[in-house]
Write a structure and sequence with these properties.
This protein is α/β, with parallel strands linked by helices. Bound molecules: NADP nicotinamide-adenine-dinucleotide phosphate (NAP) and guanosine-5'-diphosphate-alpha-D-mannose.
Length: 374
């Protein structure tokens, strides 16, 4: 069998790293685009570098000339366009950059394929998002639910969704959007709410942090496991027809519930008191191994308006029936409980060994003292 070639933008991200592993295991020749940076932060793919059939190219979603060159050199059978400024809150601070990368960037990829004459041989997956539903008009959400984007990030991604549809119809290209609901993992960026919580729970349980500050605790999400979701990206490109799919678990939980369960797996039982910005998570009991830590009765979780958004999406809940029926994808592979558990266990281990990424390193003095930053 002839080896297929895939090009992944955003290969250093959470999904890019899992997708690389998935495609390499399927026998693909995998190429990825990385950004030049003054620090080497390729932790998620470090284990793959140097292995056969894994290749990296410097490029940027804002640089069309570079993208045209890479696509021309690699001549991929499949492109997975995962690169994005993916943080919703950050998109309020950097709206123009977010639009350039997340909206025009998609157009640049489509044009790079066309300009290299690959429009009828190369299939393209676009990382679309449940954020398109935004200020939701229907629950649960499926492929027919109207969009109502509610952040600069979502508005940029809406352009990406429509330009993909336009190129599919105008040029008969096999390009599709996966409308993915939130998916998390041990490799999730540390400022997304789930990882922020599991990291804090692990640090508090090990005496390295005293409190966790969060924003809207009542926000509802449909959280799945990233490793399960990358399989779906691949399935979407193996489908007979180019079509868009909602990828979700069909199960919804609040930020508060995620937090409660994560602390529980770290050995800390929380009780909630107060409402809105005055709500607090108080430690009511701890597991035996944490008895001497003096946590009982302490406020461990507080709400801070710093983490409120100018407009917040509060009710995401996906209906994955089409993906289940037409792609044979199993949305129930990893339960919510298993997801929270595996993230907490991973962070307990990482905190123990102090191998966490940048954002958790708030106390430089502590790190200097321990000899981690020289
Ligand atoms: P992520 O961890 O934030 O990774 C984003 C990737 O994009 C990183 O590799 C990043 O490179 C790269 N990137 C950012 N700006 C770039 C630019 N200007 N040029 C080239 N590369 C750039 O995101 P993720 O969670 O893996 O998500 C992957 C994609 O799915 C994103 O498009 C996201 O919007 C979308 N999505 C995610 C979810 C989710 O719940 N995870 C749900 C729906 C849709 P650096 O490492 O250099 O920063
Ligand atoms: N990040 C963060 N930090 N979010 C918080 C916090 C906090 O301290 N406290 C409460 N939240 C709430 C947010 O207001 C939001 O309603 C929810 O938790 C989830 O926030 P994030 O984890 O930052 O994810 P997101 O849903 O905004 O965006 C993620 O999922 C999208 C798919 O729906 C990202 O991965 C996007 O790239 C993706 O498109």
């Amino acid at each position: 069998m002839c080896m297929k070639t895939a090009l992944i933008t955003g290969i250093t991200g959470q999904d890019g790293s899992y997708l690389s592993e998935f495609l390499l295991a399927k026998g693909y020749d995998v190429h990825g685009i990385i950004r030049r940076s003054s620090v080497d932060y390729r932790e998620r793919i470090a284990h793959l570098e140097g292995t056969p059939h894994f290749h990296l190219h410097y490029g940027d979603m804002s640089d069309s000339m570079g993208l045209v060159q890479i696509v021309g050199k690699v001549r991929p059978d499949e492109i997975y366009n995962l690169a994005a400024q993916s943080h919703v809150q950050v998109s309020f601070d950097s709206p123009e950059y977010t639009a350039d990368c997340d909206a025009t960037g998609v157009l640049r990829i489509l044009e790079a394929v066309r300009q290299n004459g690959l429009e009828h041989s190369c299939r393209i997956y676009q990382a679309s998002t449940s954020e398109l539903y935004g200020k939701v008009e229907q629950v649960p959400q499926d492929e027919q639910t109207p969009f109502h984007p509610y952040s600069p990030y979502a508005v940029a991604k809406l352009y990406g969704y429509w330009i993909v549809k336009e190129y599919r119809e105008a040029y008969d290209m096999f390009c599709c959007s996966g409308i993915l609901f939130n998916h998390e993992s041990e490799r999730r960026g540390e400022t997304f709410v789930t990882r922020k919580i599991t990291l804090a729970a692990a640090r508090i349980a090990q005496g390295k942090q005293t409190k966790l500050y969060l924003g809207n605790l009542s926000s509802l999400r449909d959280w799945g496991y990233a490793k399960d979701y990358v399989e779906c990206m691949w399935l979407i490109l193996q489908n007979k027809r180019p079509e868009d799919f909602v990828i979700a678990t069909g199960v919804q939980h609040s930020v508060r519930e995620f937090c409660e369960l994560a602390f529980q797996y770290a050995g800390i039982h929380l009780r909630w008191e107060g409402e809105g910005k005055d709500e607090k998570g108080i430690c009511v009991s701890v597991s035996d191994n944490l008895r001497d830590m003096d946590l009982v009765g302490k406020v461990l979780v507080e709400v801070s308006s710093d983490f409120y958004r100018p407009t917040d999406v509060v009710n995401l809940w996906g209906n994955p029936a089409k993906a289940k029926r037409e792609l044979g994808w199993n949305p129930a592979k990893t339960s919510f409980e298993d997801l929270v558990k595996l993230m907490v266990e991973s962070d307990m281990e990482k905190v123990r060994n102090e191998v966490i990424l940048g954002h958790a390193r708030t106390n430089l003095a502590e790190y200097l003292e321990k000899g981690i930053v020289k």
